[in-house]
Amino acid sequence: MSPATYEAALLELAEARPEVVVMTAENRAAIRNLPPLLGARFVDVGICEQTMIGAAAGLALRGRTPVVHALATFLVMRAFEFIRTDVGIANLPVTLVGAVPGFLSDGNGPTHQALEDVALMRGIPHMQVICPADGEELIAALPAILDSRAPTYVRFNAMPAAVTHTAPFEIGRAELVAPGAEGGVTLLTYGFLLREVMAARQVLEECGVPAAVLNMRSLKPIDEAAVLQAARRSRLLVAVEDHFQTGGLYSIVAETMVRHGVLCRLQSISLGERWFKPALLADVLAHEGFTGPAIAGKVLAEISEMGALSVLDETLVDIPGGGSHLAGR
Amino acid sequence: MATGGGCFIGASLSCADLLVYLYTRVLRVSPATLADPGRDYLFLSKGHDVPALYGTLAELGYIPRERLAQHLRTTDSIYWHPNRAVPGVEFHSGSLGHLLSVAIGVALDIRLRGGANRVWVILGDGELDEGSVWEACLVASALRLDNLAAIVDRNEFQANVRTEELVPLEPIPAKFEAFGWSCRTADGHSFADLEAALGPLSEAPYVAGKPSVVVARTVRGKGLPSIEARADRWFANFTAEEIAGLLEELHGGESRALTSEGLVVR
To answer: A81 — contact with chain B (CB < 8 Å)?
Structure first.
């Protein structure tokens, strides 16, 4: 049976793998009970993110596989150059666990809002970016990440599962959570927003819009086949993320489609170019329009706009090369 | 290496004596033990002094001497900053303020495994401007890493100006002491002085439970009077003729005027 919590999972891995060292820059929320259990293999460096990353690189040079913890913003931004230069250039097996990413920083305010973490981390060569939908997936991802021996950023999320996972976690593989239909919509998301996206799907289905849902738990490497299949069978793709529009899932999906010349209209439901209103999570979702019904409403509005465009679309379809530039926006 | 593209000659010459002393008298490492986890580690944190390291490694047989002629050639990977793909280079550097942190991880693992080997880091004095150096000093002290020793190459210059004219660093020893390190000073060009300061550290820290640091007083461009302590001789790209003159100068000959337009500050 798999362990019940992230902490228990990490402990189990550390017990089985003597090379694991757990580090933190004084962020112990998810690993509070580990110090006495791991002894010298638990290293808290205090509020020194840069030193933590450099030291993790040093430990990795000696054959360790450090799993480091800090708030996502401070981990990926305060220590960015250390991650890029010490871990990235040397391609060392360091796992970076960023706490309270995206909306999960709820009431902290913009200093704590990691809304560009995916963009920054995926920009580092060979860095994997893993965004579990819930605690269950986070725990399932850990051994795969350590086995990969690749530098990995984990968007920490230990919330209860909102779906029953059917596909075992695999790096580079998305999970088709709801099938949808040919010519319908595919909603792509990652992290805890899967819960809201599933609720949005319910609303869309009730409105007669078939909607597939893809859990994009591995943003890098991305599951290209899943994205392309969705692009081929859907009328509209929707990338839902608690991230700025630049460099996250929306960019990844767009790049993937363009690279393969498979185009589909792509809607971004993201934070665009803004930080979000700090409040408790439920209120943030309501205020920012990320509840299931709010997401569904944005998708329906997009579909309605597409309806207005469809006449144009049909007009242009006979012009050589003219069809594609309407697809995607 | 100071021709055909040039190199950071001033900073290299200020720590050349240090490196020679460390590699011949202090470090328990050899070309045969480069992969031995029990070896002593030396990290070149300031990085742009790597010509001094490559020269030392070539003299001691870590790399063939001819390989130095590959400097800046795309057929090899020897460039202005350390590359860990070169035997004897423990880690890449060039971005200041990184390798004390990396050394902490190595020292920590050595302690976890009960190893007796020691970890050395050469820091530039200008590098002490970086906050990450002091963050790492706090952490090394908190972790009581007494198998870790730093050497500050105190040549009194940063890239363009004297350190004390820009962001004054003194008193450096008191700063390290205040951060929980045990500090001594030495003439970085006197083997007798280095023996007194570094010798004991090859076996044990100055003070049990504390990381150690030696502030080595050095001269930028040491050995070449026409370059020594001149702000405009940080980076140099000399002509072959000038190199010949400088080599004569190094061996006691008279200084000749340097005319190369390649003397640039970066």
So the answer is: yes
**CA neighbor of A291 nearest in space, from A202, A207, A228:** A202
Å from A109 to nearest chain B CA? Answer: 26
Average pLDDT, chain A: 93
B220 and B178 Cβ atoms separated by less than 8 Å? no
C-beta atoms surrounding A242 within 10 Å: 29
ipTM above 0.90, yes or no: yes
Q: What is the pLDDT of residues B30-48, one digit of tens each?
A: 999 999 999 999 999 999 9
Which tokens hold the place of B223?
Answer: 């050995």
Give the burial string for B175-197 (b: 16+ CB within 10 Å, else e).
bbeebbbbbbbbbbbeeebbeeb
Range A175-326: architecture per CATH: 3-Layer(aba) Sandwich (3.40)
Smallest CA–CA separation between A101 and chain B, in Å? 24
Judged by a CB distance cut-off of 8 A, whether residue A85 touches chain B is yes
Total structural domains within chain B: 1
Q: Is B201 part of the contact surface with chain A (CB cutoff 8 Å)?
A: no
User: Is residue B184 a part of any domain in this protein?
Assistant: yes
How many other CB atoms are found less than 10 A from the CB of residue A130?
28
Q: pTM for the whole thing?
A: 0.94
